[in-house]
Amino acid sequence: MGETWARIEAKEGDVSLTTVVGGTTLALRHARTAARVGWTGLRFVIDDEHELARLKTEFSRSPAPEGFQLDFAPSDTSRTPDAEVALLGSAIYLRDTLSSINPKQTPEADFLLKDAADAGRAESYLYGQIRKSVELDGVIAYYVMRPLARVFTRILLNTSVSPNQATLSALAFGIGAAICAGIGGATYVALAGILYWFGGVLDCIDGELARMRLQSSKIGEWLDSMVDEFSTVSLIAGIGIGLSRDGYGDHWMMLGFAGAAVAIMTLGPMYADLHRRKLPIDTAQFPWFFGIASASTTDGPDGFFGKAINIIGYFIRRDASITGTALLLILGLRRISLSIMLGAFAVASILLITHCTVMKMRGEDAAEN
Fold first, then answer.
1. Residue whose C-alpha is closest to residue 73's, from 44, 37, 94, 116
2. Which of 19, 56, 129, 359 has its CA 20 to 30 A from that of 262?
3. What is the CB neighbour count within 10 angstroms for residue 54?
4. In the chain, where the domains are located
5. What mean pLDDT is reported for the chain?
């Protein structure tokens, strides 16, 4: 789009640019959204000296994205850049809206605040926009975990708690679950299940905070995924240790450590491939070979095998696996729980080897043709 600037009037009616919506002010939301679509900077047209002072204080506390320029000028002296997009200061624009327009165009607002009371309605609108589909999220996450997590998200939204801090709190629950499982005994094992499930709930908060405040980052994306996997891997080892401590045999401890090792060796290449392909750092979106269209496919773009796997995926997604593992631990069925987790990673490991083999063959076939 070249060097595109956004020009924003400092006040529309009684809605100030310092009005907080979804954990950040309208001014900072405009800056972060414009930066995400690759625009050059943001020019605030301000006649009110008090509003100017508030805006500069806001950006000193929460700077605009690196490399994004800010300009403040009264309306009678501001110069118009060659490529300028006029935005309403009292509006909320989604990233897709700003991405689809050209310079000199005036996009329609996705949500327009007419008065200060609209801030709450605007926040509800944003919550509706960030909600994932049940296909991406999983049935339990969509209908149980997300609604519960949103209670905490609303509490934390207008605080200084960052998405990464929320992620680390989920990690603390995961580590606590692994420690309790390792201690053994019915009470601690049940507590491990509770901590593990609520860690999964807390894991929903970081993404919602980041999306509402437009604070998503690659580091946060990696941290979120690594916390998920570390919690699971450490729990596998913890269950094995706990079974051994409770007299079920040292072979359970060895199985726990072996399972943790297999999990790491399986997940590592998957994350490496996601990073190499510049895909979201999320194993639920891993591009398995059966999800790629083939000329010989007759059952639709994914084929019969791919569709079957997608259906099974609802039952093996993280939300379902967390809930199932937690329930088994609460009921004291940890040998069954560990056996299922070990079996799941064994299957995933075999599937990954098959995937790599198929993709290599497809690559060789493409080179020959």
1. 44
2. 359
3. 18
4. 5-122, 131-368
5. 85
Amino acid at the residue 71: D
Query: What percent of the chain has pLDDT above 70?
Result: 87
Give 259-309 pLDDT, tens digit per residue.
999 999 999 999 999 988 888 888 877 888 876 443 333 444 455 555 555
Q: Judging by beta carbons within 10 Å of its beta carbon (0-12, 13-18, 19+), is residue 60 exposed, middle or buried?
A: exposed
Q: Are 192 and 149 in contact (CB under 8 A)?
A: no
Q: Which long-range contacts (CB under 8 A, 24 or more apart) does 209-213 make?
A: 209/23, 209/153, 209/156, 209/157, 209/161, 209/162, 209/163, 209/166, 210/163, 211/130, 212/22, 212/23, 212/123, 212/126, 212/127, 212/130, 212/153, 212/157, 213/22, 213/23, 213/24, 213/157, 213/163
What CATH superfamily classification does 131-368 receive? CDP-alcohol phosphotransferase transmembrane (TM) domain (1.20.120.1760)
